[in-house]
Design brief:
- By secondary structure, this protein is an alpha+beta fold.
- It folds into 2 domains: 106 residues, Immunoglobulin-like, CATH 2.60.40.3120; 262 residues, 3-Layer(aba) Sandwich (Aminopeptidase).
- 27% of the residues lie in helices and 24% in strands.
- It has 9 helices and 17 strands.
- Strand 11 and strand 12 form a beta hairpin.
- It is globular and about 65 Å long.
- The structure holds zinc ion.
Length: 378
């Protein structure tokens, strides 16, 4: 007998039918308190060596229908090693056929980053020598919102802020942070040693713990899209942003990177602040240098494909990287990784995944180091 479940960390699906293996009919569930509909994560049991057909019948009405073009679903037997299964979109229905080699299999929109792994990351990095871990406060659901401080304790040391998962379904963002933190703490790495000696890193690995656990794509437990809350965060509706913004105002910001995932574009890219009032020629030059240096540091990063420069012009200062760049007059970037794959360097077995996001997180330290060296000379 086939059964479908999603009652676990970041699980989300609605079941219409699963009696017949060739007619498993499901719907993508909306975020818990908002209409965004894209993330799914569920287990199918009772299907060993059985050819099954899974259909997500509302995929065509999802928030980002372009996300299903050339999309392969991620699958895993052990919830740890994930591989891709090709899908097709027919009349708004996302469909895949698969013959699982075990009794039960997980399918998800993207490789999950579990709350348990988050707690382990915070604990492990927070306990490392020279690292300070601080609980900034509570989320809407009462979870801990934690920040990690690494590097120089000098008052004048430039502050490098890295945040991830404002949009909780963009799990690649926390994989990215894990790779960045692990390289920073590699005592044999000269880039990391240079950075920790001269700068102070302020890192929030998961900005949206409630949305992550609830299996939301874009919103917290009050239905807030945190990346539209930066101009006027509210203690009730968006305490996560309120708390981090207050910590920034206390510390200052020399460089800000906000890590995200993009549903449709199969590339790694950054969105800059060209449209933000007060964006100077010096900032434009710094941004161009950072992009050039990032390209040299990782062949996964490119600047040919991305967002139009004026994409968020009307609501710009509600977005984290725009608000921070404007408020602190610093280089401030939104980093986007793909849900699908990097079309310049595709991997048909795994697509873009956690491991590749981690390598990107390690690679960004070089352009950060070059930016800080240039800044010190100004
Ligand atoms: Zn995002």
């Amino acid at each position: 007998m086939i059964s479908i479940s999603s009652n676990f960390d970041s699980g989300a699906i609605l079941v219409d039918r699963c009696e017949q293996p060739d007619d498993i009919s499901l719907r993508i569930r909306a975020d818990s308190h908002a209409d965004f509909t894209q993330w799914f994560h569920f287990r199918v049991a009772g299907v060993r060596d059985t050819p099954i057909t899974v259909r997500l019948t509302n995929a065509g009405q999802s928030t980002y229908p372009g996300g299903w073009r050339d999309y392969s679903v991620v699958a895993s037997y052990d919830h740890s090693n994930w591989f891709r299964v090709a899908t097709r979109l027919v009349d708004g229905v996302l469909e895949w056929q698969h013959t699982p080699a075990a009794d039960a299999i997980y399918y998800a929109y993207f490789e999950p980053y579990s709350w348990e792994r988050h707690l382990e990351l915070i604990g492990r990095i927070g306990a490392a020598p020279g690292v300070e871990q601080q609980r900034l406060g509570a989320t809407v659901d009462g979870r801990d919102l934690d920040i990690l401080y690494l590097g120089s304790r000098q008052a004048q040391a430039p502050r490098v802020w890295i945040i991830a998962r404002q949009h909780p379904g963009e799990t690649m963002a926390e994989w990215f942070v894990e790779g960045l933190l692990e390289r920073l703490l590699d005592g044999a790495d000269p880039v990391s040693r240079t950075l920790l000696g001269s700068a102070r890193f302020c890192v929030v690995p998961n900005m949206n713990p409630d949305g992550a656990v609830r299996g939301n794509l874009r919103t917290n437990a009050a239905g807030a899209n945190l990346n539209r809350e930066w101009l006027e965060p509210s203690r009730e509706r968006s305490p996560e942003v309120w708390l981090v913004r207050a910590a920034m105002q206390k510390e200052g910001v020399a460089l800000f990177v906000d890590a995200h995932g993009d549903e449709a574009l199969p590339y790694v890219f950054v969105a800059g602040n060209d449209m933000v009032p007060g964006f100077t020629q010096a900032l434009a030059d710094s941004q161009a240098s950072f992009i050039a240096n990032f390209k040299n540091a990782s062949p996964d990063f490119q600047d040919r494909f991305g967002y139009p420069r004026d994409k968020h012009s009307t609501e710009a200062l509600k977005l984290a990287s725009k608000w921070v760049g404007h408020e602190f007059g610093c280089l401030s970037l939104t980093l986007e990784m793909p849900f699908k794959d990097n079309a310049n360097l595709p991997d048909s077995q795994r697509g873009w995944d956690g491991a590749r996001s981690k390598r990107l997180g390690a690679a960004i330290l070089l352009p950060i180091a070059q930016y800080l060296a240039d800044r010190a000379q100004m």
